[in-house]
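Worked example 3 (structure in, sequence out).
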């Protein structure tokens, strides 16, 4: 499994991880089996949030990670409505209890909505000092938001920005990815298949055939070919979870990248999109 240093954190993280949004709607045994299969295949960056199933997904992950916690890079997120100075600390402690662990590897502000960013960042630093999180980051931040966070926190503190990125939504390539590369902030691509279904395209099929891979694997390899980018596909099917994990070792060549660039054009800058 290909790993990379995660932004400023002194840790190697697999290029492909595991998303968990809406997993509470799936059959729990199948979802747990899929998470465990992906971890065993090396896709050990597990992404969750207090939002998901209103805490149910964190609880389910607590069961899925039993005996595997030390192999996992575990990320959760605080809702902006909880992200006050004190509220962030309490939300983190609730997430830790649900997940059955004493620390998170990564804690993110889920999106911006009227929170006091300086208070959120102070709470993140307090949690880091107390050993309850190893690092912190943000999600759904545009360049202006990142500049604001950087001015508050100083360099080398924002571990990542988790943002919408898939073949049909490449607008972050204009400014956001270059900004993150310059400031050593990891970019985590959420909804890498567009959240519902990967678009069908003859070019995807033909590149997949050439590499004896699947279109989903080609899509993930395209998104993560830049060294700052990680992806967190969600699947509650063990065989798909293993398929997604294996994409970390699929290397596309310049011809493939150019063909995909033409088939799924980046388009003009349209502002940061989010789900
Ligand atoms: P994805 O783009 O990962 O797509 C998930 C869908 O693709 C599911 O229907 C899944 O079905 C299907 N799928 C997965 N793998 C395969 C495969 N190999 N072949 C065929 N179908 C497949 O969607 P998400 O929106 O869930 O995004 C991924 C993660 O990103 C989330 O789960 C969450 O952790 C994070 N996220 C973060 C957000 C934020 O604001 N920070 C917002 C949205 C997502 P099935 O499960 O049945 O296999």
């Amino acid at each position: 499994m290909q790993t990379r240093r995660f932004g400023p954190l002194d840790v190697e993280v697999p290029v492909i991880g595991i998303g968990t949004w809406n997993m509470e709607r799936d059959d729990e045994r199948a979802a747990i089996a899929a998470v465990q299969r992906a971890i065993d295949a090396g896709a050990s960056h597990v992404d969750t949030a207090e939002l998901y199933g209103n805490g149910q997904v964190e609880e389910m992950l607590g069961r899925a990670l039993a005996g595997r916690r030390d192999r996992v890079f575990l990320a959760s997120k605080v809702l902006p409505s909880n992200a006050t100075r004190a509220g962030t600390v309490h939300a983190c402690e609730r997430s830790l209890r649900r997940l059955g662990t004493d620390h998170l590897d990564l804690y993110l502000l889920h999106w911006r909505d009227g929170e006091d960013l300086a208070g959120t960042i102070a709470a993140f630093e307090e949690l880091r000092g107390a050993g309850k999180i190893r690092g912190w980051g943000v999600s759904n931040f545009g360049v202006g938001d990142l500049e604001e966070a950087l001015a508050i926190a100083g360099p080398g503190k924002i571990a990542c920005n988790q943002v919408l990125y898939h073949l049909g939504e490449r607008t972050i390539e204009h400014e956001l990815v270059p900004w993150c590369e310059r400031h050593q902030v990891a970019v985590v691509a959420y909804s890498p298949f567009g959240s519902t279904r990967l678009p069908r395209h003859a070019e995807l099929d033909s590149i997949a055939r050439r590499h004896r891979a699947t279109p989903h694997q080609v899509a993930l390899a395209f998104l993560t070919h830049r060294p700052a980018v990680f992806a967190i596909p969600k699947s509650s099917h063990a065989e798909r979870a293993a398929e997604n994990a294996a994409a970390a070792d699929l290397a596309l060549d310049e011809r493939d990248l150019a063909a995909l660039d033409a088939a799924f054009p980046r388009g003009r800058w349209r502002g940061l999109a989010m789900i």
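Notes: Residues 19-21, 47, 110-111, 139-140, 162, 190-195, 216, 232-237, 240, 243-244, 275 surround NDP (CB under 6 Å). The mean pLDDT is 97.
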